[in-house]
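[job 0412] stage=fold_complex status=start
inputs:
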Amino acid sequence: MARSLLVEVVTPDATVFSGEVESVVVTTPEGELGVLPMHAPLVARLGKGQLRLRPVGKEAAQVFTTEGGYFQVAEDKAIVLTDSAQAADAA
Amino acid sequence: MANLKEIKKRINATGAMRQVTRTMEMVSTAKIRGAQNRIEHARPYAAALAKILGRVTKAAGNIAHPLLEVREDVQRVMIVAVASDRGQAGAFNSNVIHLTEARLNEHRAAGHTVELVSVGRKVAAYFRYRGIEPDLSVEGHSGSPTYEDAKALADRIIAEYSAAEIDQVVLIYNRFVNVATQRPEITYLLPAKSEEMADDGADEAGAALDYLFEPSAESVLETLLPSYVESLVFKALLESAASEHGARRTAMKAATDNAETMINTLTRSYNRARQAAITTEIAEIVGGAAALEG
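[job 0412] stage=fold_complex status=done
writing structure:
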């Protein structure tokens, strides 16, 4: 059984995304960080850059541009906290 | 006859006023809903932030951070008074203003230096009129504050606190209890209490998990604390905005009701005056006819 990761992308104004994904890629100040299901508990600071989510059963990734914020993952639940998350075209 | 005309004029004027207050009441009703939604939308962010913060403070243990630093000898206090740019909202502005003024005098009496930050034109205007120029006055967005507004304000507060220009930050605003009730409240913004933050995240299952920090717990905390303060300020601004619309709605509803009562009373006196005039006229005609016959 393929495992998945429940991700929520939250900004002060709204919850931008919430759903099961196969992978998450966030941008930390030191570079990109990819997270798959069953990742060890982690808290990270985010820098300016892309946030890529691959929802379960979909080929195309959902891409956001984020500016600062935090990322937390524990027990297949992840939260992306950011000041702003703009949807960007998948590159 | 002049009396009749005058009463009519007053009825019309009151009617026009009622139209205005009723419109404002309806506008506020619509805006409350929007403001409440914004509070709802901001909640997940604040909750998640508190959760992460609790996690980090617990993991990082006893760490020093300028924003956590409690200064024993409080000499300089910053009072942030949050109210509105506009009036016509009942006691909304004056509640905050009076609390602020009382607090201000208290600190001055104790020999403290007070830095006043006002949010909303009405607050600034009140203190300016009394010869107290706010050190910072934020104006123009009390009805619908954005996160950027909160951030700008929080950044200034954080900068001054970190530079030890102030020892304590007090926030005074109207807390939104429900549509009909707003309670003015004083809260301490800084120094931040780490126990409080840890408590917020403690009940969460899996709190005992061993977390990795990227790049390090200290570095995460460094930006997390300011974000926490920002979110507290943002929450206060949002609550204040919702309270403002709530207070205005209540005030305008009362004004509309008063106008209605007044129109009723005036209409009654108008009718009475008109009837009196008719009766007088009839009496005159009857009197005239009687005089002719006689």
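[job 0412] summary: DSSP finds six helices and six strands in chain B.
[job 0412] exit 0
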